[in-house]
Amino acid sequence: MKIVAAEVIVTSPSRNFVTLKITTEDGITGLGDGTLNGRELSVASYLTDHVVPLLIGRDAHRIEDTWQYLYRSAYWRRGPVTMAAIAAVDVALWDIKAKAAGMPLYQLLGGASRNGIMAYGHASGRDLPELFDSVRKHLALGFKSIRIQTSVPGINAVYGVAAQTEGERYDYEPAQRTPLPVEEDWDTRAYLRHLPGVFEAVRSEFGPELPLLHDGHHRMTPIQAARLGKDLEPYDLFWLEDCTPAENQEALRLVRQHTTTPLAIGEVFNTVWDYQTLIREQLIDYVRSAVTHTGGITAMRKLLDFAAQYQIKSGIHGPTDISPVGMAAALHLDLAIHNFGIQEYMQHSPLTDEVFRQSFTFTDGYLHPGEQPGLGVELDEQAAARFPYVAAYLPVNRLKDGTVHDW
């Protein structure tokens, strides 16, 4: 089943998305997500200029061979742009294969290992009353697990708090449509003083049963992360995410020595090589990579099988910088693997839902990819054409003295 066409479609319904559409000689089409938040055009160019010409004439069924061909033939391996481009091809080919088989993709991955996929939502607020209102809103939507993010006194803008950003927002989308990145400020000591009291208040208000999560967003040193993990132990977190920049994998040894708070790492990772020490030494509890940024379903399945040997579970990245195509791919994988943990889920805007027609559902706190053949997502190209690319950047972080800090 030869590939006869491949097209890169960039559209911006509320935010920018990069989609690869592959067509076979039989007229079957497949979609893949290549969105890289704040660097979308780099992936679009990589696909258009360097990958699409390599796809024409290839057998769409040879997914593993195509993955290896794209990964190894470039010589310059890994990195977010390369791996997002490979992911777009990989997911599109899985979409085609499942459509050709006449079944939803998860069936080709071994069938369902569960009835539904537990999701967590993003609650945030500038103060405790606003945070509590956000938690209640998410509980009313059906979420049974909640991420908690809050403003910190003395800091003007903090990652994860929707109410303190200007302009169009749905839930929390940090990329802002500005000609240059917005600069935010940061004070780690103020954050470490403030956060335990927030979780004490949330537990007092909502009780001990509700699973609570928190994202440190790479902002702490290892010893600071160890302190926070220990301080949060009384509040029984489901996980503490990205407590320290994990490119230095050995740093997690220090964190692990000091706290039993479960750790989730990896949304900025792109390959299994980023995880070798973390998984082998059991320094984390959840793998946070996105299908879209980690080489697609082919690579993520291998990564999660590796993690399963060490009782480490999945926690696939899934905010609105993953398109509905990438989200559907994650859900099919979530449903099939044994070591599923939890799925991040932010509902896309109505405009995004107009461009990407989806079959996956969210009911009573659980996601399901649906039973349509393939991924279960179709792209309305006429609608997509109404929303051209708009430059947008993630913020930049600075300490009080002006030093650039991890955002």
UniProtKB/TrEMBL annotation:
Location of the Mandelate racemase/muconate lactonizing enzyme C-terminal domain: 129-262
Gene Ontology BP term (one): amino acid catabolic process
GO molecular function: magnesium ion binding; mannonate dehydratase activity
Pfam families given in the database record: MR_MLE_C (PF13378), MR_MLE_N (PF02746)
UniProt-listed Gene3D superfamilies: Enolase-like C-terminal domain, Enolase-like, N-terminal domain
SMART domains membership: MR_MLE
InterPro entries registered for this protein in UniProt: D-mannonate_dehydratase-like, DgoD-like, Enolase-like_C_sf, Enolase-like_N, Enolase_C-like, Mandel_Rmase/mucon_lact_enz_CS, Mandelate_racemase_C, Mandelate_racemase_N_dom
UniProt-listed PANTHER family: D-GALACTONATE DEHYDRATASE-RELATED, STARVATION-SENSING PROTEIN RSPA
NCBIfam families: ManoateDhtManD, PRK15072.1
Name under which the protein is recorded: Starvation-sensing protein RspA
The species this protein was found in: Catellatospora coxensis
